[in-house]
């Protein structure tokens, strides 16, 4: 199982590096079942989670785990129960959601002109 989770983490990190730069900074981890992504200024975690959910991407706003105000908003990202194809789709969808929530501004590195971009609902495989 460790090798399977490591593969899925690698897919998540590679996709995030390419598609989420400037939108979501994923905390580096070496093992685990989930990680944290810190949102760019101006993007609210709850709004991001709701918009992602509408695109069938399950993430959790970090403020749900914190009683006091947070210095920076973020998302909990699970990857262990998600197959690599769905991770790619999820990151693409999440990138599109975060771009829309951020609104107009300078283009982020690696952004495309596509109207939708991909983290996903858990699907076994």
Summarize the structure.
With 125 residues, the chain is of the alpha+beta class. The protein is 38% helix and 13% strand.
Task: Lay out the secondary structure.
Layout: H1 2-19, E1 24-26, E2 34-39, H2 45-54, E3 60-61, E4 74-78, H3 84-102
Antiparallel strand pairs: 1-2, 2-4, 3-4
How many DSSP helices?
3
Q: How would you sum up the major sheet? A: 4 strands, antiparallel
- Tell me the helix content: 25-40%
Arrangement of strands in the largest sheet: 1-2-4-3
Taken as a percent bin, the fraction of beta residues is: 5-15%
Uncertain segments are: 111-118, 120-125
Mean pLDDT: 85
CATH-level-4 superfamily name: Aspartate Aminotransferase, domain 1
CATH topology: Aspartate Aminotransferase, domain 1
Instruction: Please give the alpha-carbon distance between the first and last residues.
Output: 12 Å
What structural class do you assign from the helix and strand content? alpha+beta
- The CATH class turns out to be Alpha Beta
Rg, Å, rounded: 14 Å
Quickly count the domains. Answer: 1
CATH architecture: Alpha-Beta Complex
The run of helices and strands is: HEEHEEH
């Amino acid at each position: 199982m460790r090798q399977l989770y490591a593969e899925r983490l690698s897919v998540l990190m590679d996709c995030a590096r390419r598609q989420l730069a400037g939108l979501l900074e994923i905390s580096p981890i070496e093992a685990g079942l989930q990680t944290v992504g810190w949102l760019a200024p101006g993007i609210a975690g709850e709004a991001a989670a709701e918009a992602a959910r509408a695109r069938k991407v399950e993430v959790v706003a970090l403020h749900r785990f914190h009683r006091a105000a947070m210095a920076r908003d973020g998302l909990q990202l699970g990857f262990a129960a998600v197959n690599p194809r769905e991770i790619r789709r999820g990151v693409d969808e999440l990138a599109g959601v975060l771009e829309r929530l951020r609104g107009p501004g300078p283009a982020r590195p690696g952004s495309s002109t596509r109207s939708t971009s991909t983290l996903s609902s858990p699907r076994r495989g």
